[in-house]
Amino acid sequence: MSLQNKLDTFKADFEAGKPPYNIPASVIEVMHRATAELLASGAAEHALKAGDKAPSFLLNDAQGNAVSSADLLAKGPLVISFYRGVWCPYCNMELQALQATLPSFRDLGASLIAISPQTSINSRKSVRQNHLDFPILSDMHNDVAALFGLRFALPDYLVALYTSLKNDLPSFNGDQSWTLPMPGRFVIGQDGVIVYAEVNPDYTRRPEPEDMLPALRRAAQAKAG
């Protein structure tokens, strides 16, 4: 089953109020409103695109070790997935799908990292729960997400909803700003130029990991050339 099919199946059960979430329709309506407003805002149009130069960054992994984008690019192309956090079931399914595709990335000489605003403790939880064999980096305050054009502030009514559901983003992220990244997927060539970019304000929609393979092959060929 494709990643998007898995996400669609989960979404149908979640929005139908099925266990274990048992979410009422009123909550779903608020979530739909927030997604529709983010889509209508055109925020995704301001995100970095293929052909843009990717910003360099230095972030800590789940063990507190500094990871440099420049160091990774010195070894080969770089795949980056920006995600919301371990509390987001859609993100966890995406991480699992990326893990399943990791051998194909490595065969092409590429590194894979995922970036979220959560603390290192929650990044370690992401790694454990999803059985990941690639680094999860903590982007405090969504500063790197902002460089890629992904950071947005949650509207007040969504903050109120998350608070009522005990989805305490300030605790998860060690940051009081109530900001998140739009889910984004990027492939960066060794010259630092983005060769693949996919950003969607609708967090229930994610590209298939295999969609990046053609861009990675081109990046690998450019390295060989």
Please give a structural write-up.
This protein has helices spanning 3-15, 25-41, 69-75, 89-107, 120-130, 143-147, 156-164, 169-173, 213-224, and strands at residues 58-61, 66-68, 78-82, 111-116, 136-138, 151-153, 179-181, 184-188, 194-199. By secondary structure, the chain is α+β, with helices and mostly antiparallel strands. A seven-stranded mixed β-sheet has the order 2-1-5-4-3-8-9. The chain has a two-stranded antiparallel ribbon with strand order 6-7. β3, α4 (89-107) and β4 form a beta-alpha-beta unit. The longest helix is centred in the middle third of the chain and has 19 residues, at 89-107. The model has no long low-confidence stretch (mean pLDDT 96).
Give a topology summary.
Layout: H1 3-15, H2 25-41, E1 58-61, E2 66-68, H3 69-75, E3 78-82, H4 89-107, E4 111-116, H5 120-130, E5 136-138, H6 143-147, E6 151-153, H7 156-164, H8 169-173, E7 179-181, E8 184-188, E9 194-199, H9 213-224
Parallel strand pairs: 3-4, 4-5
Antiparallel strand pairs: 1-2, 1-5, 3-8, 6-7, 8-9
